[in-house]
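Progress narrative, work stream C.
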Amino acid sequence: MSKGGTAVLNEQGAARTKRGYFGPYGGRFVPEGIAVLLEELEKAFDEAVADPTFRKELDEVLVEFVGRPSPVTECRNLSRACGGGRLFLKREDLNHTGAHKINNALGQGLLAKRMGKKRLIAETGAGMHGTASATAAALLGMECVVYMGAVDVARQAPNVGRMRALGATVVPVSFGQATLKEAVDGALAAWMEDPEAFYLLGSAVGPSPYPEIVRFFQSVIGSEARTQMLQREGRLPDEVVACVGGGSNAIGIFSGFLADPQVAITGVEPAGKGLHLGLGAHAATLVAGSPGVVHGFNTYVLADDAGEPAPVYSIAPGLDYPGVGPEHAYLKDTGRVQYVAVTDEEAITAFGRLCREEGIIPAIESSHALAYALKRLPSMEKEQILLVNLSGRGDKDLDTLLPLLGL
């Protein structure tokens, strides 16, 4: 099945060839000091997920605090306007804090508490993971420091305000492109200086065991969506779609359908200003990148001529990362998931249409998945179902998008 050997499904349904790897992707390419912390984390995670008490506490907080299960909504107006298939949305925008990020933040927060940690370190791009981390810290009585690119601090001011209101310290990172990659760099450096803290990584990236941990806590999206479609429609969707930056919301919903070969799965990356413009104009890692190492793991990377992570761009701050989760790299190689890219312009148009035709304001990240869906629906049969993971709400993006929409 993979370039790295015969893959098997682990307890959480993730295909991997050996611990920490999905085919040849993943691994732990880090300094010894970080390797020791990761080994400690892996042991604590394994013990926690095997403990019924931990899983009960997690399930309770997801229901009583987050508001799970998030609903599935049929978009009848857009479906009718597009012709062809039926469009459904998995409404992660309706979670407490407004995105899928809270699922993982609370899960890792509970794990940190179990490990006796008192301080959380996190990175954020769009600010939703930072907000979720600050929320988890407040609920669990912990300190929280969030590293955020200075560019994103400026363009995601509402979320910066929310993080500060929740008691977190926001540290702007101003080197490099001052976006998500640099925020991860800053958070990793801070963790190395304070190994007693807990690094709450927000996406399905990074050295092992983080991709597995994030997948586990986000898999609630896919398991819910699968049950909801069977209960509502008596069958599974024909295609499942999600936007892909690092890949946490996507692997969360994909996990519920990977074992169903009749369900097509599509990940949508940011083509930004256009793939034809080359490096620095987009962040379509799987569509335009090649295998390499970034932030301590092997995956597809957008790299320059020297093999270093290249500048990337997207109007969506949660998607402008030069790498991608290793399981997505594996799923691309095996062909189980197709990965495509849509431009800023297409995502902005989709954002406006969902607002005005369905009364739902989506995050600009989620609007990338929606843009693909609006192009795909007309080619589908009338009763075919396309399910999009609406990963977050878009109030954070209004200052950026309203002028572009002429409003």
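Work stream C, second folded protein:
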Amino acid sequence: MPTQSRLSVNVNAVAMLRNRRDLPWPSVTDLAAIAMQSGAKGITVHPRPDERHIRRTDVFDLANLIAERFPGKELCLEGYPTEDFLRLVEASKPTQVLYVPDDPEQTTSDHGWDFAKDGSLIADAVATAKSWGIRTSLFVDPNPSQPELAAKAGAERIEIYTGPYGATYGDIAAAQRELDLVVETAEAAQAAGLAVNAGHDLTVDNLPPLIARAPYISEVSIGHGFTADALIYGFAESVRRFRRSLGEDA
């Protein structure tokens, strides 16, 4: 039997390219379909208030695509828990919501939650999504103290911010230090009863060392590195390349 994939393809960059023109291509849904047909477990999107890449309409189009053509695949909706974002989550019913502490002007998610400052906001947002039957995940820094705080907030998963690890390409010693922190955080999450996701600047080169040390990781969300790969190899082959880097049949 084929191995169940851990790869969720983030299609924000596809939407950003489409938005450069008043045209319907490249199609977010068509490329998402290719990714899932090629073995990805699902699709991740981060709709921002200014819709600079993913639009609200894309969220519903992707939810419908999965419901109609890819039952069993997953949609992960990522965002800061504003009232508008929570309404979108409730209306679109993704499989998973990933809460991130982003300022609307940020170009990408680049840090985890400050539980001391935002604990009440986080706990309320988690409880709200769970009341709708949606799996909850919290974006955390690679720091072993964070998973216990996420568990106390009621989350079912964390997503470890792997940007510092991804930034160490070309520096073996630094990569080892950052990988140690990611793995220690993942182990702390397991000890706290949480499932573990990971995301940010993961590539076919830096995934194998991570998965070798943390084979229990449930999901990796990959956008920038995947899109860069797809410009060379195409969407379908890039899914297969990333799945092989995860040790999966592809």
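The chain has one domain: 7-245. No further action is required on this item.
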